[in-house]
Specification:
By secondary structure, the chain is mainly α. It is built from six helices and no strands.
C-alpha cells in the first residue's frame, strides 16, 4: 500500500487508546477479563463490517453517491481542489488499494499521490460514475467478507507488511471514507446537488 493516510490511522488508534485509558479511569459497569473472547471478536467483526456499509454519524456512501446530477459530476466549487468525480474516484481507488494490500502480497499500489486521483475533472463518459460506484461497493463488500470471515485473524500481522493488521486496514478504510464522504457531501451542498435541498 502507498503512503495513503497512514498518519490518520495512527491518530485514530492513538485516540482510541486515549479514550480507553480515560474510560478505564471511570467506574466500570462490567469487569473486563482483559482478553478478547470469541464473542467480543465477533462483535468487533460485525461493527467494522457495519461501518463499511453504513454509518451512525454521517451520510452513508450510498447517500453521498446517489442521484448526483450528471452535469455536476465534474463541476468545480471555488476554493475546492476537487470535483465530485475526483472525490468518488479517490475513494474508490484508495479503498481498492487498501483491500488489495490486505489480501495480496503481490498487489502494486498506485503512485502516491497522483495515482489516487482521477486524471480528469469529469467522468470520461456517462456510464463511468455508475461503474465507479459499483466498483466501490464491490470492494467494500469484499472487505466486509474478509473481516467477517472467522478464518481472518484481525490482529495478526499481514505477512507482507511492516506490522500492519487487517484491523488496521479496516479502520483505515472506514476513517478515510468518512473523511472524504464528508467532503463530497459538502461539495454537493455547495453545488445545490444534495437531495435534501
Amino acid at each position: 500500500m502507498g503512503k495513503l493516510d497512514a498518519d490518520v490511522v495512527e491518530q485514530v488508534i492513538e485516540g482510541m487508546s486515549r479514550a480507553a485509558k480515560k474510560a478505564s479511569s471511570k467506574p466500570a459497569r462490567a469487569k473486563s477479563t482483559g482478553t478478547a473472547t470469541p464473542d467480543s471478536i465477533n462483535q468487533l467483526r460485525h461493527q467494522l463490517a457495519k461501518y463499511l456499509e453504513t454509518s451512525e454519524a454521517h451520510a452513508s456512501w450510498r447517500d453521498a453517491f446517489a442521484e448526483m446530477p450528471p452535469e455536476l459530476r465534474g463541476a468545480k466549487v471555488p476554493g475546492s481542489p476537487h470535483t465530485p468525480w475526483q472525490m468518488l474516484e479517490h475513494l474508490r481507488i484508495a479503498q481498492w488499494d487498501i483491500l488489495g494490500f490486505s489480501r495480496d502480497a503481490n498487489h502494486v499500489s498506485p503512485d502516491f499521490p497522483k495515482g489516487y486521483w482521477a486524471e480528469t475533472a469529469a467522468p470520461p463518459n456517462e456510464s463511468a460514475w455508475d461503474a465507479s460506484v459499483r466498483n466501490f461497493h464491490n470492494d467494500a463488500e469484499s472487505m466486509r467478507k474478509l473481516i467477517l470471515d472467522p478464518k481472518t485473524d484481525l490482529f495478526a500481522k499481514i505477512p507482507h507488511s511492516e506490522g500492519k493488521t487487517i484491523l488496521r486496514e479496516a479502520l483505515l478504510i472506514i476513517d478515510h471514507n468518512a473523511y472524504h464522504l464528508g467532503q463530497l457531501v459538502l461539495l454537493r451542498r455547495l453545488l445545490d446537488a444534495w437531495p435534501t435541498q
